[in-house]
Write a structure and sequence with these properties.
This protein is α+β, with helices and mostly antiparallel strands and 195 residues long. Helices cover 32% and strands 35% of the residues. The strands form 3 sheets. A 5-stranded antiparallel sheet has the order 2-3-6-4-5, with helices on both faces. It has a 4-stranded antiparallel sheet with strand order 9-10-8-11, with helices on one face. It has a two-stranded antiparallel ribbon with strand order 1-7.
Length: 195
């Protein structure tokens, strides 16, 4: 999965209708709604402002009066195909006087976002996981060294009958991290949970 380094845009014209494709790095619905209000204010004569939001915990899409499935859905398909996340895709349409039909609209909205994507610089998204481990008090310092080696963050340490550490690290490193720590501590390590 990827996210945008910065906003990008492209413009296409089909049968005198202008389609302004725009991609923005976004991290919340509130941020997206604020930006959409600004875009609408910048384009008061546009007939449609269609959008797709893909971000953690809050996604959505809107055809803004275009026939259902002809605007936001093709935009969404481009984002999914390109593996983009934390993104707001917007296409502003100015009417050119000729109806494009459902197929024409679908192609136009998808192409506007595809063309904007050509200008994009992407950043790989690293998915993080949290794990909770229990170790003997005497082994805590060795477990902390494994955390340093994997650049894992220790979020919390609780002391009961053992040291219980809540650790955050890259999801694709969890199994290797656990195996290395388990071997180093001679099996005196218990995996309590993972998120």
């Amino acid at each position: 999965m990827y996210q945008l380094k910065s906003a990008v845009a492209a413009e296409i014209e089909i049968k005198k209708s202008r389609f302004l494709g725009q991609l923005y790095p976004i991290f919340s619905r509130n941020e997206a709604q604020t930006l959409l209000s600004q875009i609408r204010a910048q384009h008061p004569n546009a007939v449609h402002v269609c959008w797709v939001l893909l971000c953690e915990g809050d996604s959505g899409l809107d055809d803004d009066g275009e026939p259902s499935g002809t605007a936001a859905k093709p935009m969404y398909n481009v984002l999914v195909h390109k593996e983009l996340f934390n993104v707001l895709a917007v296409v502003v349409r100015y009417w050119g006087g000729t109806k494009l039909g459902a197929g024409g609209l679908t192609r136009a909205y998808g192409q506007a976002i595809s063309d904007a994507f050509k200008n994009a610089e992407l950043i790989a998204i690293e998915v993080l996981s949290e794990i909770q481990l229990a170790a003997n008090f005497a082994d805590e310092s060795q477990l902390r060294r494994v955390c340093d080696h994997y650049q894992a963050s220790i979020l919390q340490v609780d002391y009961a009958d053992r040291a219980i550490l809540t650790i955050k690290l890259k999801a694709n490193q969890v199994d290797a991290f656990y195996q290395e720590a388990f071997n180093l501590l001679r099996g005196n390590l218990e995996r309590l949970s993972e998120e």
